[in-house]
Amino acid sequence: MTLTQDAPAGVEDRWPDVTAVPHAPLRAAMAGALFRRAMSRCAVRVRYPDGTVTGASGPILDVRRPGVLLSRLGTAGLIGFGEAYQAGDWDAEDLTGVLTVLAGSMGTLIPPALQRLRRFHGVRAPHAERNTLAGSRRNIQRHYDLSNDLFALFLDGSMSYSSALFTTPGEDFTTAQHRKIDRLLDRTGTGPGTRLLEIGTGWGELAVRAARRGAEVVSVTLSAEQRALARRRAAAAGVGDRIDVRLCDYREIERIPGGFDAIVSVEMVEAVGVDYWPAYARALADHLAPDGRVGLQMITMAHDRMLATRDAYTWIHKYVFPGGLIPSVPAMEAALSRADLRVTDRLDFGPDYAETLRRWRAAFNERPAEVAALGFDATFARTWNFYLAYCEAGFAARYLDVCQLILGRTR
């Protein structure tokens, strides 16, 4: 479904699969058996409305409406588990703790035989969410065009929506975000006179820091909201004349004679999709000067997990990031090598993303009245609380990682 900031016409209209209660007694019974089995195999305690608690240790998952939870699990699997949280069928005081345990046990919670059956009974991604030129625009707009003011409520002062790079506990957030940016700019040799291409503008902080070094920046985005704010921020920083922010797909970037001296792309490849990784890699190679360098920051997962889940349609796809797919490093290296690009430097810093997400979620949850004032309802707030906790748990459990790759040509 599409999330908008329009005044709600009714919860049922905006969240049909959250408000609808499925009736599937047989599936609910089967899901109940699997749920009890899964919970008995991980360090989570489950508390039921009658006060019964199962499990000996770990954070508590409070089941509010057992029958509805199991019906959702039986009809929609893990998507149903997320929708059950959105609807309040279950809760947790330590939501990230519960999800971290589950993420750490992801490969074993469901019996292997049933995992193999997912490809036959799982929900398929809507065809409209394929990352064609038109599909990519729609997918990006559904998330990044929600509201600049919404993102400003929980991001740091740099408006960076990607992992920071910390050196000490409790470090200033913006300092850590700038370290992430500066490392990419340093490793790609960005300085006075550099012709820099940025694929994925965000809200402009990297472009501004590059321009302050004396670089001439072309930055492309598919988000009209991001483009508008990035241009205003560049002008306010006094570097608007050195930054050209374009509403443009990476497949439509205009070539310049000799190519760009440096290309950077921060957590954008996750929105490309496996079918288009070759086109993305080729775009990097086609626009790079002969002796240029590329700096990528990307979220990753283990290669075997990526292969097992790459065709799955998940709760995150449905409610947060349509069309997305997190790559593995080997899969991305293979796509890059076919475009004659090779990795010359790599930094992994997944625990820093867990901390980044912890700070975002804390800031988001401190401002419920402001979120509501922007036109977002209580279900949206609950959805985004779950999304941020879900992602934090993935990094905390090391199910997910994040890395910076520096690339050069193979010849």
Tell me about this structure:
With 411 residues, the chain is of the alpha/beta class. The chain folds into two domains: 11-121, no CATH class; 127-349 and 398-409, Rossmann fold, CATH 3.40.50.150. Helix content is 47%, strand content 16%. A seven-stranded mixed beta sheet has the order 7-6-5-8-9-11-10, with helices on both faces. α5 (95-104) packs across α18. The chain is globular. Residues 1-10 have low confidence and may be disordered.
Question: Concise description?
Answer:
By secondary structure, the chain is α/β, with parallel strands linked by helices.
Hey, roughly how much beta strand do the residues contain?
15-25%
Task: Specify the CATH homologous superfamily of the largest domain.
Answer: Vaccinia Virus protein VP39
What would you report as the Rg, rounded to the nearest angstrom? Answer: 22 Å
Mean pLDDT: 93
Q: How would the global form be characterised?
A: globular
Structural class, judged by helices and strands? alpha/beta
Q: State the order of secondary-structure elements, H for helix, E for strand.
A: HHHEEEHEHHHHHEHEHEEHEHHHEHHHE
State the CATH architecture of the largest domain: 3-Layer(aba) Sandwich
Q: Any key phrases for this structure?
A:
411 residues; alpha/beta; Rossmann fold; 2 domains; 16% strand
What order do the helices and strands come in, and which of them pair?
Blueprint (H helix, E strand, L loop, with lengths): L10 H4 L1 H4 L5 H16 L4 E3 L5 E2 L5 E4 L2 H22 L2 E2 L3 H10 L7 H10 L11 H12 L3 H7 L18 H15 L7 E5 L5 H8 L3 E6 L2 H13 L6 E5 L12 E7 L10 H11 E14 L1 H7 L5 H5 L9 H10 L2 E8 L1 H16 L2 H6 L4 H19 L3 E10 L2
Parallel strand pairs: 1-3, 5-6, 5-8, 6-7, 8-9
Antiparallel strand pairs: 1-2, 3-4, 9-11, 10-11
Helix pairs in contact: 3-4, 4-18, 5-18, 9-10, 12-15, 16-18
